[in-house]
Each structure stands twice: as C-alpha cells, then as structure tokens.
Amino acid sequence: MKENCPLCKQDGKLFYRDEFFKCLNCKGIYKNRKDYLNTQAEIRRYKEHNNDVNDIRYQNFVFPITNHVLTNFTPNHTGLDFGSGTAPVISKILQDNGYDIQQFDPFFANKPELLNRMYDYIVSCEVIEHFHNPDAEFKLLRKILKSNGAMICMTHLYDKDTDFKNWYYKNDPTHVFIYCRETMNFIADYYGFTELIINKRLIVFKL
What we know:
alpha/beta; Rossmann fold; four-stranded antiparallel β-sheet; methyltransferase
C-alpha cells in the first residue's frame, strides 16, 4: 500500500496499521485518505468541542499563542485567526486588549475575502493537524504574511518517545496530518521562513 505525502508529495510508507503513513522525506505522519471524514461528519465533530471563550481553562490553554502576540506585536498590527472554530478565544483575548484580528474558518467563519489581505501575524491553534492539503494551506498562509511577520501555531508534535498506538492525538478522526520537529524544519525551509521556534506545543514560523 502506498500513498504520497500531502505536504511534500514524496513517498511514504505504512506507519500504523493501514491507517497512517509516514513520509520518508518530511517525516510527517498522515492519515490514509480512505479514512477521512466527509464534510458533514467533520463539522459535527467540531461542534462537539463545546468550547467557551470565557472559560479560563480554555484561555489558559491558548496562552502560549496570545502571550506571543501580546509580547511581540502591538494593536497597530493586523492579525488573522485562521481556523478560528466555533469559539474564537484567541481573537476575544486579543480584541479585549485592543488588537485588530479577523477570524477565518472554512466552516464557521467562511469569509474568503480575508484571504486576499496581508497580515502581520497569523494564529492557528490546534488547526494545522486538520489540513487535508497542507501544501496548499502553508503556501497560502506564507503568501498573506507580511515581511517581519509570524505564523504562530499550536499542535501536539510526535516524537520517538510517543506511544503512537495509545496516543490520544491520533484518535481524533479529524486529525489527518501529524507533525514532528523534522516536519516543522522542512516547512520552515521549503516555504521560505527565516526562523523557526518550537517550544512544546507552540510553533512559530517567522519572516
């Protein structure tokens, strides 16, 4: 069984049962396309999250992203919350601090005109693992990021110590692409970012 990597288009090999492949080039782990949810099932799954923008636990979870923005950007900078979901908590926290940030989500805030603008920073919390076509998504995000800008993401990385068989992260049926440090280095190099910061779940690509 063979299926090319949706990020770098190179060969992959079966990694876990017949459910996940691992790319021999960028080291990304990607779900067998036969197991992707259809759009309606995917939306139902997202609606199950029941997140609340006023929940302090949710605000604390996204703190690595909001802290990075508040520390490195000002209200004069423009931002995009890409994949803002049903409860855009990052946008709420930043807007409460006077920041100018817009929300885009293909299911819950589908405003494609926002993808024709340029931004000083783009935030994406627990989003990039859902990319069905990560190559196209990263090309787009890189294209709409201004010089000296940053793309600030959160995702759970795989490493050699991860017990993949019992790993909760792979069990979410909407998680179709899982990254490791090597994958993030590939993304930084391939899409022309000048700096990469990895701090646990926080991933920052800088221009």
